[in-house]
């Protein structure tokens, strides 16, 4: 393993071994890769972070830290990149995982919700109707909250089925993402739900401006 790590350190490929001596919250954000393909793509690619064992572990731990002691019955992740962090969070919490899908993929009875994503495209997401019972406390996880449209649609689906995303009087669960931008939609969510993200306050303006 040591030899493999040395080879990776000397290679132009991703370094999956290096861990900083001091692991402050958000240290792993530097592992994310900038867009090199132009305006039709997201400005940043977090998937490189998931390839780093310690980076992924620390990211999930930071996302879950604000919910320690909260009663969470299930974790739900949003199609598609929210599946990665959501499933990792569910495994850490030893809870079940529910996939909230883009429309057209589920062969069972579903409830659907239209929404506009961060690029302004009109889409529809859906969730199976048999997984959420009234009062079930859900932690919603996605990779990123930019305009908030996708997360708001997921919240709507959960609440339409009787699930609880935030209940201030009874151990709230809520919303988690690597970054929650201070957009109008992002602020709407943060004002109404218990939220967790990984971006330190000093870096938040850079993330809001996609720098």
From TrEMBL:
Enzyme class: transferase
Superkingdom per UniProt: Eukaryota
GO CC annotation: cytoplasm
Transmembrane segments: none
Pfam families in UniProt: Pribosyltran
PANTHER family recorded: ADENINE PHOSPHORIBOSYLTRANSFERASE, PHOSPHORIBOSYLTRANSFERASE DOMAIN-CONTAINING PROTEIN
The protein's name: adenine phosphoribosyltransferase
């Amino acid at each position: 393993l040591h030899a493999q790590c040395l080879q990776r350190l000397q290679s132009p490929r991703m370094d999956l071994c290096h861990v900083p001596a001091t692991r402050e919250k958000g240290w792993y954000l530097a592992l994310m890769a900038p867009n090199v393909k132009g305006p039709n793509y997201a400005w940043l690619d977090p998937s490189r972070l998931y390839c780093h064992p310690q980076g992924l572990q620390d990211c999930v731990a930071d996302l879950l830290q604000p919910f320690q002691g909260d009663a969470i019955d299930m974790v739900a992740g949003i199609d598609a990149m929210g599946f990665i962090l959501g499933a990792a969070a569910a495994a850490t919490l030893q809870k079940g995982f529910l996939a909230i899908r883009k429309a057209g993929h589920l062969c069972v009875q579903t409830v659907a919700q239209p929404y506009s994503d961060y690029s302004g495209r009109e889409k529809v997401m859906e969730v199976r109707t048999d997984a959420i019972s009234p009062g079930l406390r859900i932690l919603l996880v996605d990779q990123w909250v930019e305009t908030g449209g996708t997360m708001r649609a997921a919240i709507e689906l959960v609440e339409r089925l009787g699930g609880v995303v935030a209940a201030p009087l009874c151990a709230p669960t809520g919303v988690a993402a690597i970054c929650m931008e201070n957009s109008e939609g992002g602020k709407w969510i943060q004002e109404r739900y218990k939220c967790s993200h990984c971006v330190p306050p000093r870096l938040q303006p850079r993330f809001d401006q996609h720098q």
